[in-house]
Amino acid sequence: MSDDNIIHFSPWQDFNDAPAAEDPFGVEPDPVQIATFLDVVFGWCEGQIPVRGFVDMGQGKEGRPHNVWMDADATAAGKLATFANWAWREGAAVYVIPGTVAGAGQAKAAEVLQMQALVVDLDAGGIPAKLAHLLRHLGQPTLIIESGGRTSEGAAKLHVWWKMTEPAEGAALASLCRLRGEIALKVGGDTHFRSAHQPIRVAGTVYHKHGNQRLVQIREHHSVEVDLDEFAERVAEMPPLPGAGMVASGSVTPDKPRLDDVLVTPVREGGQDDWSRFEGASAAIGHFIRMVHEGRMSKDEGWQAICGYNSAMLRPSWPIERLQRESERLWDLHVQKNGPPLVRLDSAAPAPCEMPTFTLGALLDDTSPMPEDIIAPRVLTPGGLLVLGGAPKVGKSDLTISWLVHMAAGVPFLGFTPPRPLRVFYLQAEIQYHYLRERLGQIALPARVLAAARETFVATPKLKLLLDTEGSMRVARAIQAAFPDVGPDIICIDPIRNLFDGGPDGGGENDNTAMMFFLKDRVEVLRDYINPACGVILVHHTRKLSKQQLKDDPFLALSGASALRGFYTSGLILHRPDEDAPERKLEIELRNGPALPSKLIDKVGGQWVEINPMNERLVRAEVGAKYDAERVRKQEVILSILLEEAAEGRLYTANQFAEVFENKGGLGGKDAIRDRIAVQATKGTIKFVRNAAPYGLGPSRSRFGYLCVEGMVMPLGREEVDPETGEVSPARVAVLPTHYKSPQTGALLEVENPHIWVYPEGDRP
């Protein structure tokens, strides 16, 4: 009896001198080993065990996978033994995902809730040396299982298990999977077990590949349990195995047919050729799936190639339904093992797609609730595209950052309201890292907004890439790393110009074909891959328009092709109505909602605020602005003269000042000067001193007294010596107000604390 043909012992065969023959009944499942395996892998877990039955390749048999879920309780051993007997008769292998899920139908990595055992799959190379390395550094395992396969050197492939002291879940489960991958890298095992949903053969079931029936049998079983944290320390201390460590096991199996042969060799049903139709179709489909996954073929091209192989090489061809089903199954497996597509970002298997249509009646009868706005009211809708345009240096990036941080905090901004704190990814290509953090620190945002958005707002430093195939891959990876569990609600690209990819023809922003390629094949594909329901914000430059053109249609100012305006769902234009004024105007255009009025906004105290449009001049705005500037200038001249005169030892009443400085410094006549002083007294920038005796002056005949401004000092007519430095300087005394003018009644009131200069609310200069 050879190692490759393990059969049950039979006394009759010992005395039979006829040539050796394979046992016609094969190798039966062993329920005792199945029960032992379940106790080690699931004994303490709660939930359901995902079980898989796959027809082993190389038998000339075909069949669909059979998936069942069993409760992880005392009945599991009997149920799994029954399933194993069925699989044995069908030539199918039995696998489990070595963790429990909440319910039937669940088997994804994110759906695995508990695991209580850690496994290493040794399936290639010097397996005895790898096992000895594990035993030396990690200690005695709980189970060593011969999986049924053999290496090219004839060594049995092994599954090595360590049972934990308690089930791992949550962060501990993630740590357990990470350890599985790290051990595999260090000894040259199968690194696919970094994923929680990677299936593995069940001990006590039967291996059938290529007609070699072997029991997946337990070689060693020890009552060993390990603590996860202590085991992690052992793994960290274990060095890589020389010659095998840090290299994943190979994926090429010697007994598989060469792909070049498969693609050009017809294969007939009934196992008449070197490989079966199932093997040939699986190899060809897998090849074209890899081509699509790596971006070397489009989804449609991949599907056409699969259909072409089916028609030309399978005799007879598979039905189209089976071909599509097998393509989708293999695509799902490929994505599970290799991650999302890297370049084209197609999120579906290579298969034909259908175009949805709706009758008028269906549309009228659908009274389901409208989807919730990402940013209300209808400014950014699920799957929508918003373009924010503005001239260079108008403040659009500053406005964008403030807006996005508020959205990430779930706080309204300029009347734009998020339904909750949003997950925001800010992809920007203008501001380098250090200047980005400096700008974020300088933006005067409320502390509660900053605290709420610390984790939900993610930004990139200045990127040096185009949003082409490679750039799309890098961006997708970055977004997935930033939001690994749930995709973002908003992806913002700032600006379009620095990331624009016009496609294979290399068109620029002014080319409608290139712009449509960028929007459909880059931006939309990225959005659909990451989260089809998320909103996209594109920040864009505007070109120079005349004031009349800007007034008639501000959205004509968007740079580039007209296709952009026809594509977006919302448009915003930020511009200055008056180049000499600080206020900006935000024009709004919506496709998915009623028109919104434009907003007049400005930065006040470092924060963006909306200005009441009723305060905006409608008639002779430019002349009025000049008058405003002149009044501000006169105010500053009056205050500076008062400070300078006091420093020379002179104080003035309002009338005295107006008479002395008439037509000086561009202040105009004395009546105009008195009016300016009266206004500034009401605003609190000028107050009064009724008792000037401390400053060497007599009483004033004015009802209000001498004029006083903040920071005013007078000389005392003597010198003083600094006790520390010995420096001699003129002695000075601060001039403190005793009275102020009430902004409500104009009455003269006493100052409560002359050392604290108080301004009426909102009037501080």
TrEMBL record:
<dbReference type="InterPro" id="IPR027417">
    <property type="entry name" value="P-loop_NTPase"/>
</dbReference>
<protein>
    <submittedName>
        <fullName>AAA family ATPase</fullName>
    </submittedName>
</protein>
<dbReference type="Pfam" id="PF13481">
    <property type="entry name" value="AAA_25"/>
</dbReference>
